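We treat protein structure as text, and this decision shapes the records that our systems exchange. The tokens are whole numbers drawn from a learned vocabulary of local backbone shapes. Below, we set out a record of this kind in full and without editing:
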Amino acid sequence: MSKTTNINIRIDLEFKSELENLYSQYGMSITEAINIFLHVSLMEGGLPFEVRQQRYNTETESAMREARAIANGLIPAKKYSSAAEMINDALE
């Protein structure tokens, strides 16, 4: 067995909780996910994804924030009793 060492990082508590929830869906811890990231980085010879700034318009960014808030249970999702009711709400 090879020797291991610790890497300490500081992250926002809410961000950590979101990551724990995400990775637990795959049956892994944050540590295991970071190790996978680091191994893939070595295999790729760098970051295993393209680094660029995403650019969205203000309306899209607002909708993305709202969707994240709904997904995290911070605001309730709208509920409709019919498709017609939903379409009418969307057209308003």
